[in-house]
Specification:
10 helices; GTPase activity; single chain; zinc ion binding; 7 strands; Rossmann fold; nickel; alpha/beta
């Protein structure tokens, strides 16, 4: 029974990876880079993304955002205040996004000329970590209130990150957060990954994060995490799935 479950899981992930590879190539042909944002609920991901989008709009950068939740359009409403094009993706109970969902929502919606698409994944550090969305950059965020050992508890998420962002740093003192221990734990599961400090309330780290994302869009090399999705060759199914023009 366990072997059967494992085989089904591997087949599902393999199919997703094929779709993700096809979507990545299709979006690249349009000049679009995707940033996949992963975190637990309450990390401050939405607030920080809203600040980044607002800064991009101020600079007339062609950005857009998709935000995923099990229910409600609250986050889309919040992000739309930035002035950037935003679309809500409701998963109807699914705890993660898959490449097929992203493809379905991008088609016919993504504004012409967009070069940077932020995807705010479902608040969860378990399931989303296993699904490649065709992203150019995977960013894992964590608030100082979550504890220094979070990277050790969720090694797949942190071990697959191209970039780690520490949020709510203004609360580090009151929370008794040990930043040195956190940094050591991050490096233990993902040696060499950069850790950015941020605070959406004060704006700390907003420009730095936007700068890193733009650099990747413009061709800068990204960190290679130990658990990065492996490259896949095109299968017939994957090729047929590339429906984004």
């Amino acid at each position: 029974m366990c072997d059967s479950v494992d085989e089904v899981t591997r087949a599902v992930l393999a199919k997703n990876d094929g779709l993700a590879a096809s979507l990545r190539e299709a979006l690249a042909r349009r000049g679009v880079s995707v940033v996949n944002l992963l975190s637990s609920p309450g990390s401050g991901k939405t607030e920080l993304l809203g600040r980044v989008l607002a800064r991009a709009v101020e600079r007339s950068l062609p950005v857009a955002a998709l935000t995923a939740d099990l229910a409600t359009e609250n986050d889309a409403d919040r992000l739309a205040r930035s002035g950037a094009p935003v679309k809500q993706l409701l998963t109807d109970g699914l705890c993660h996004l898959e490449a097929r969902q992203l493809r379905g929502h991008v088609e016919g919606w993504l504004p012409a000329g967009t070069s940077l698409l932020f995807v705010e994944n479902v608040g969860n550090l378990v399931c989303p970590a296993s699904y490649d969305l065709g992203e150019s950059l995977r960013v894992v965020l964590m608030a100082v209130t979550e504890g220094e050992d979070k990277p050790l508890k969720y090694p797949t998420a942190f071990g697959s990150a191209h970039l780690v962002v520490l949020t709510k740093t203004d609360l580090a003192g009151p929370a008794g957060f040990d930043e040195a221990a956190f940094e050591a734990n991050v490096q233990r599961v993902n040696p060499g990954v950069e850790v950015l400090r941020s605070c959406a309330r004060t704006g700390t780290g907003v420009d730095t994060l936007l700068g890193r994302v733009l650099a990747v869009r413009d061709g800068a090399p990204v960190h290679q995490p130990p658990l990065a999705p492996r490259p896949h060759t095109h299968t017939r199914e994957g090729a047929e799935a590339g429906l984004v023009p």
